[in-house]
Specification:
heterodimer, A: MetI-like fold, 15 helices, B: 355 residues
């Protein structure tokens, strides 16, 4: 009996380790490939000779990219959308989540339903498109001509994030709030001096979720921002891909690096910021998948 | 407010007459002034309610207004109606989509194709994509060294944080077609698949994304790459919550590893699995349009399998916005019914439900 146990355990362990190692390496492989291909020579990239390590190393693709105004433009547009978008979404979500966490709030149940319903039913992209177009006209009408503000204000809100904040605020003991009120604190002071400091980790998580989704935003920015110079990095990458990937006449390409290397270099530049903050966000992962919050 | 007399009146036995119940008068008064009281409460606590305003406006303008736009699906904007349709003109967009009458006949075929593709992409996602995070979580639990496990987990979570553009660009590059003119081979992954004999060299050379037969596989495999690791978190959390004594008890009873899985681990994480399954089924029809568009845009041949309802609606919105809204409306309503259905079944079968 004892022996049988050990064998089944051993088989399972070997299976688990092998499977996980292979899967994890496969997950990473495309990114490693992108890095190698971005710094490999033209022939190696065009004839797909790279398997893992770069060949005939060059940095001209990066140099060309850093030398182009379009790249810096799109990068700064992405920064703009990420910074202002995250701040706006976070302010709206913290205020809303705080109010919803209060038991004394009237119509609390209906308001919660108002949020949760949007997680189950979304109108779809065509009605959303028509709606954004209408919003854009209103924005332009009141003098906001920069479509980036439309993206910042109208997009990127997620009911899930508000619910995460609401749950965190609900966990703050109400005695602390009462004590603060006795001391003469206003609602705003209670929020900023008591609730926000006590829910720091959830706020950080939500802020990172907002920031990542802003950084990665593509579709609506492309649809709604008319001025090509205002488009974010993701749109720039996609445009380059569409421009180069089916390039049959490689003869017209005269650089010493492949057109693909340029795209890989762009991809590498767009993921570097995420790789930098990645170690800091890991510990918050489990929070984001908290499904219990959906319960009414 | 109509009431039975008994609620209102009390028989005064001394005089034999009826008089009004004073408590009822108070109740009536409260009811009559309900909104006034609501107003008073809000005014007294106005700071709290002001905090709600930005959130309400954002959701109202950009989540609920689009739902109102969906009503456009009942409008007939661009079709000359046959007489028989006049009574049902509100539904002619739906009718056209479903039955392909009149000017809609071609589009109806496309719509059904899109509906079928949507279902199949979701169904295969459920079949192949759903078990993967559970398997990963079970395996993560076997890795005893914390450092090794964290390293593996971090590696598998990473793709989740990359943008759809980056992910699809990488996919496009890895399975890119070769070029006969300049004699370049296809992408490295296509080459590998061809040398393993999974696809023919010719298919690889022509580009997998241009071939409708492979779109579903590409979609599922890249989906697993993107989300399986991250989705395993919730299952892993459920597994590590199992108390070690449960395993010990099973071992004493002579349970091997497989029996432990079957009788200890699976029952313990069943409720998590059910909840995730409901969520998954609920979002079955909301296939990520962004990924589908990015993988199939400009590759008309692949529409055969790649076009889903939302991308279909997106494509026809310019000429037939009423039709596009009708397609999305149908998609959303079916999606909604799926959530409610899945939730009801789960509640009946296992007493677990999402709401």
């Amino acid at each position: 009996m004892k022996r049988k146990l050990e064998i089944s355990e051993l088989i399972f362990k070997i299976l688990a380790y092998t499977f996980l190692t292979v899967f994890a390496l496969l997950c990473l492989y495309p990114f490693l490939y992108a890095i190698s291909a971005s710094i490999s020579g033209r022939h190696a990239v065009e004839y797909k000779e790279i398997i893992l390590l770069p060949k005939a190393v060059q940095f001209d693709a990066f140099a060309a990219m850093f030398g182009s105004n379009e790249f810096w433009n799109s990068y700064s547009n992405t920064l703009f959308l990420t910074i202002y978008g995250t701040i706006w979404s976070l302010v709206v979500a913290i205020l809303g989540g705080y109010a919803l966490s209060k038991k004394r709030l009237l119509f609390r149940k209906s308001l919660n339903f108002f949020l949760v319903f949007t997680m189950w039913f979304s109108a779809g992209i065509v009605p959303q498109y028509l709606n954004y177009i209408a919003t854009k006209q209103v924005f332009n009408g009141v003098g906001i001509m920069d479509d980036k503000w439309l993206v910042v204000i109208a997009m990127g809100m997620a009911a899930m994030n508000i619910i995460l904040l609401r749950n965190a605020f609900e966990n703050v003991p109400s005695e602390i709030e009462e004590a603060a009120i006795v001391d003469g604190a206003t609602e705003m002071q209670v929020l900023s001096k008591v609730y926000i400091p006590m829910s720091k980790s959830t706020i950080a998580t939500v802020a990172l979720f907002f920031a990542i989704s802003r950084w990665n935003g593509y579709f609506w920015a492309r649809q709604m921002i008319s001025n090509i110079n205002e488009q974010p990095l993701q749109v720039f990458i996609r445009n380059r891909l569409e421009q180069y990937t089916d390039l049959e006449q490689l003869a017209t390409w005269t650089e010493n690096y492949a057109a693909d290397s340029l795209i890989f270099a762009l991809i590498v530049c767009s993921i570097i910021p995420i790789l930098i903050i990645y170690p800091f966000i890991q510990k918050y992962f489990a929070k984001g998948t908290n499904v219990g919050g959906v319960k009414e | 407010m109509k009431r039975k007399a008994d609620d209102y009146l009390i028989l005064d036995e001394a005089t034999g007459t009826y008089r009004e119940d004073p408590e009822q008068v108070v109740r009536d008064d409260v009811e009559k002034h309900y909104w006034l009281n609501v107003g008073r409460t809000i005014l007294k606590d106005w700071r709290l309610y002001v905090m709600l305003v930005p959130m309400l406006l954002v959701f109202l303008f950009w989540r609920y207004m689009p739902m109102y736009e969906l009503l456009g699906s009942f409008k007939v904007d661009d079709v000359v109606k046959p007489v028989a349709d006049q009574y049902f003109k509100g539904f002619s967009n739906f009718k056209g989509l479903l039955m392909g009458t009149g000017t809609y006949s071609g589009l109806s075929v496309d719509f059904w194709r899109a509906m079928r593709n949507t279902f199949l992409l979701s169904f295969y996602g459920l079949l192949f994509g759903f078990p993967m995070p559970i398997i990963l979580a079970l395996f993560f639990n076997e890795v005893r060294s914390n450092a090794a496990r964290s390293a593996l987990q971090v590696m598998t979570y990473l793709p989740k944080f990359m943008s759809t553009v980056v992910m699809t660009s990488l996919v496009v590059m890895l399975i890119k077609q070769g070029s006969a003119a300049s004699n370049t081979p296809p992408g490295i992954l296509s080459q590998a698949l061809a040398s393993l004999g999974l696809i023919s060299a010719e298919t690889a050379q022509n580009g997998l994304l241009n071939n409708p037969d492979y779109f579903r596989a590409i979609y599922q495999v890249s989906g697993i790459w993107e989300t399986a690791g991250y989705d395993s978190i919730v299952f892993f959390a459920a597994i590590i919550a199992i108390s070690p004594t449960s395993y010990e008890a099973a071992q004493i009873d002579g349970a091997g590893k497989w029996a432990q899985m079957r009788y200890v681990v699976l029952p313990s994480i069943l409720s998590t699995i059910v909840i995730m399954l409901i969520t998954r089924i609920g979002s079955m029809l909301s296939i990520g349009y962004e990924k589908v568009l990015l993988l199939s845009e400009g590759r008309i041949a692949s529409y055969q399998t790649a076009e889903v309802v939302s991308t279909f609606a997106w494509r026809v919105k310019g000429s037939q916005s009423g039709l596009a809204s009708a397609a999305e409306m149908m998609n959303n309503v079916i999606g909604m019914l799926l959530v409610i259905g899945a939730n009801t079944i789960a509640r009946k079968a296992s007493n677990v439900s999402l709401y």
